[in-house]
Amino acid sequence: MSGLDWTRYRQRLEAIPEMALNFDPDDLREEHAESNGWHVDRHEVDLPAEPPGPPLAPEAPRASWAVACRIVRAYEFPDPKLITGVFEPDGDLEGRPMLLRARFLAFRFWLPVRVAEVVDETRETDRGSAQVWGYSYTTLEGHFEKGQIWFEVWKWTDSGEVAFRIRAVSKPETIRNPFYRIGFKLFGRRLQLQFAHRALERMQRFVSEELAARAASVPAKPREAPEVAPASHDAEAAERLDEAERDAS
Questions:
Q1: Alpha carbons 130 and 161: distance in angstroms, whole number
Q2: Fewer CB atoms < 10 Å away: N or C end of the chain?
Q3: pLDDT at residue number 45
């Protein structure tokens, strides 16, 4: 969590489980989502390979899959210049309430999401069996977008190849403020893709650096910690989140 003090936001996080989705989940079926104006995105980056077979134990020197899973669980892969996640780190992952601090132009926004499902399974693919772990979260009332995004770490047991995948189905939400509406129309899609591309680059770099540090028997480089102030310090953000909480009640 990069040092974020989630307890500052406890009251707002506690309101998220009661918030409603801001979309109909049936609209996300990929067979008709794109024809109905939804963006369907798939992104992937290769991570350091492991030996063939099941994923290595987390403490193993070449445990690429386990390291990546830990980074995904802790939500450390997003670029904090774009998105920072606030959540209770020791809470259950399934159903986890999260506040996302998004930066846009000179503004900061606090956007509520909730973990919808946790994936931990073996999948059969044209490349053989793959062990997959990850989760998805859904957008809630008060978010500037609507949809669902999946973050998954894959290991193909026949080859030992490891990858990090992001899949998203999304579209812009109706934004009442005309300034924000125009800004997101002009820049929102670009920022969405930038988030994914930076997340892939950071994941690849973080896993590679940690495995290199293990091989050299030195501590891994610390990751940058985002500068975070309480949501109450940003009146615009607090107002938007308060509106979402009132709408959900």
A1: 9
A2: C
A3: 98
Q: What band does 209 get if pLDDT is binned at 50, 70 and 90?
A: very high
148's tokens: 């669902």
Q: Count the alpha carbons within 13 Å of 214 in the hemisphere toward its beta carbon.
A: 14
Q: The tokens of 106 are what? A: 């000179």
Of 33-42, 57-66, 136-145, 214-223, which range is least confident? 33-42
Calpha distance 245→237 (Å, rounded): 12
Residue burial 81-104, b: 16+ Cβ < 10 Å; e: rest: ebbbbbbbeeeeeeebbbbbbbbe
Q: How far is it, in rounded angstroms, from Cα 123 to Cα 114?
A: 25
Q: Is the dihedral of CA 147, 150, 83, 140 positive or negative?
A: positive
Kindly list the strands in the beta sheet with 107-125, ordered across the sheet, starting from the edge strand earlier in the chain.
Answer: 39-47, 162-172, 145-156, 128-139, 107-125, 97-104, 83-86
Q: Which residues of 178-210 are buried (b: 16+ CB within 10 A; e: fewer)?
A: eebbebbeeebeebbeebbebbbebbbebbeeb
Name the most confidently modeled range: 64-78, 139-153, 167-181, 182-196.
64-78
Tell which residue, 105, 75, 100, 87, has the closest CA to residue 191: 105
